[in-house]
Write a structure and sequence with these properties.
The longest helix is centred in the first third of the chain and has 19 residues. Strands 3-2-1-4-5-6 form a six-stranded mixed beta sheet, with helices on both faces. The two termini are about 15 Å apart. With about 190 residues, the chain is α/β, with parallel strands linked by helices. About 40% of the residues lie in helices and about 20% in strands.
């Protein structure tokens, strides 16, 4: 059974990293006319710590959006800041993440950005696991755009004969039976 999708090694593949940066650029440009990136103030891009930071750096170059860095924890030395980079209160930021399952890492990052005075109501993810996190975030005012869904990945793997129709069906049944809920989040956070 599929338990995890990981894109954490994409940054070791230069061609894939460049392609992902370009695809994120296209998705951001396509949606900036109808979302927060058309609001006043400067526009920024920020990766959800930590796996999304390398691809966010490439997306920053491709989109020409300045990147800010959100640390998981502020360091006890140096600037001691949680948000690094050049930004001002009132700036608008689009987030980048690799896989969205629960949406909590996006919510945590949004909270820290908002606390710093940065507006954030848009996120781009490489893969939506289709377990309800996109709807959960939409209820909190965050629009999520995904490059791929788990269904699209499964269909491609099936077409290339890497997985069987039976395995695809099992994953779909699993996803439908396990939508994002507070109970599921608590179980996962408690290691159950």
């Amino acid at each position: 059974m599929l338990h995890q999708i990981s894109f954490k090694y994409y940054y070791s593949q230069n061609d894939l990293s460049i392609l992902l940066g370009q695809l994120i650029q296209e998705l951001v440009k396509e949606n900036e006319r109808k979302a927060c990136l058309s609001s006043p103030g400067r526009n920024l891009i920020c990766g959800v710590p930590i796996t999304a930071i390398p691809i966010t750096s490439l997306a920053s170059v491709h989109t020409n959006l300045p990147m800010i860095l959100k640390r998981k924890v502020a360091k006890s030395y140096g600037t001691q800041e949680l948000i690094e980079g050049v930004w001002n209160r009132g700036d608008t930021c689009v987030l980048v993440d690799d896989v969205i399952m629960f949406g909590d890492s996006i919510l945590d990052t949004v909270k820290d950005l908002v606390d710093a005075g940065i507006k954030c109501s848009q996120a781009v993810v490489i893969c939506d696991r289709e377990q309800g996190a996109v709807k959960k975030l939409a209820r909190r005012g965050i629009q999520v755009y995904s490059l791929l869904t788990l269904t699209q990945i499964l269909e491609h793997l099936k077409e290339e004969n890497y997985v069987s129709q039976e395995n695809c069906d099992m994953v779909r049944v699993y996803l439908a039976a396990n939508p994002v809920s507070d109970d599921l989040i608590n179980k996962c956070n408690n290691g159950l």
